[in-house]
Amino acid sequence: MYTEPVTPERASVVRSTCAQRHWLSAERAALASGDLRLTARIRYCQARQFQHLHHNQDALDTLRLARGQLADQTTPALQAMLYGAEAASLAALGDHDNGVLSLATATEHFDHIDHDREPEWMRFYDRGELLAQYGRVYRDLARTDPRHAEAAVEWVTAAIDEFGPSNVRSTVLNEVGLCSALLLAGESDRAISIGTRVIARGQQLTSRRVLDRIRNVRRDIPHDTRASSLTDFREVLSTTIPAAA
Fold first, then answer.
1. Pair 46, 25: CB distance under 8 Å
2. Would you state the pLDDT for residue 9?
3. What is the pLDDT of residues 214-228, one digit of tens each?
4. Residue at which a domain ends, from 87, 110, 125
5. Are both 198 and 224 inside the same structural domain?
6. DSSP one-letter code for 244
7. What is the pLDDT of residue 15?
8. What is the extent of the structural domain holding 100?
C-alpha cells in the first residue's frame, strides 16, 4: 500500500492546522462564557500564529475583530497588546505609516496600565513586549529604507535589556531580531557574533518558532555580498538549523 511521504512542508501544515483547531475551540469556549477579555487574548495568539506563517492580512483582521468586540471589557494592557501586534502586521504588509501610528497608540495605552486592574494572565505583557514590536516594525521599515536600520537596532536592544536573563525564549527571539537589524545596518561583524551565539542557544530550545526565526535571518544577508564571512554565515544558517519537520 502506497503511503504519501511526509515532507517537512507537509508536516508544518499539519502542525499549523492542529494549532488553529485548538485556538478555535478555545475561542468558542471563551465566547460562550461571555469572557471577551479572554477571547481577545486568544485571538491575539491566533494572530501571532498567522504572523509566523506570513498571513499578515489574516492576523490584522483577527486583531481588529478582537478590539472591536471588547466593548466595555477593554483594558489598557489589552489595547496595547492588540495595537502593538497590529503595528507589526501593518508594517509587514507595507503600510509603514499606519504601523508607526499603531505603535504610538499602543504606547499611549501601555502608559495607562495598572496591573491590579488587569487580568492575571496579562502580566506577561511588559515593556519588553512593547519594545519588541517597535523592533519588528522598524526592521520592516529598514528593509525598504536603510535609514531606519539604526533605530531598529536601538529598539531591539532596549527590548532585550527589558526582558533580562530570566526570560530566555523572548530574549533569544529578540537576539535573532537584533542580528537581522545589525545586518540591515551594515554591521556584519556584530551580526555574525550575535547570530553565532543565538544559533547555539536556539539549538537548546524546542521552539519551532525560534528555529524558524533563526533560519529566516538569511533574508537580511545581502545576496550580492562579497564578504566571505557573510557567505559562510548564510551557509551556517542553512545547514545548522534544520528545516521544519
1. no
2. 43
3. 999 999 998 877 778
4. 125
5. yes
6. P
7. 54
8. 9-125
Q: What is the pLDDT of residue 6?
A: 42
In a domain, 226, yes or no: yes
pTM of the model: 0.87
125 closest CA partner among 202, 96, 155, 133? 133
* Residue 175 included in any domain: yes
Q: Which three cell numbers stand for residue 45?
A: 495568539
Residue 192 within any structural domain of the chain: yes
* Overall domain count for the chain: 2
Kindly give, in sequence order, each residue whose CB lies less than 8 Å from that of residue 201, ignoring residues fewer than 6 positions away. 168, 172, 175
- Are 151 and 230 contained in the same domain? yes
Residues of the chain with pLDDT under 50: 1-14, 245
| Buried/exposed code over 185-196 (b: 16+ C-beta within 10 A; e: otherwise) | bebbeebbebbe
**Do 77 and 118 contact (CB within 8 A), yes or no?**
yes
**What pLDDT does residue 23 have?**
77
Grid cell digits, residue 134: 517597535
C-alpha cell at 170: 523572548
Neighbouring residues of 40: CB distance < 8 A, sequence distance ≥ 6: 66, 67, 69, 70, 78, 82
Residue tagged 514590536 (cell numbers): 133
DSSP state of 112: T
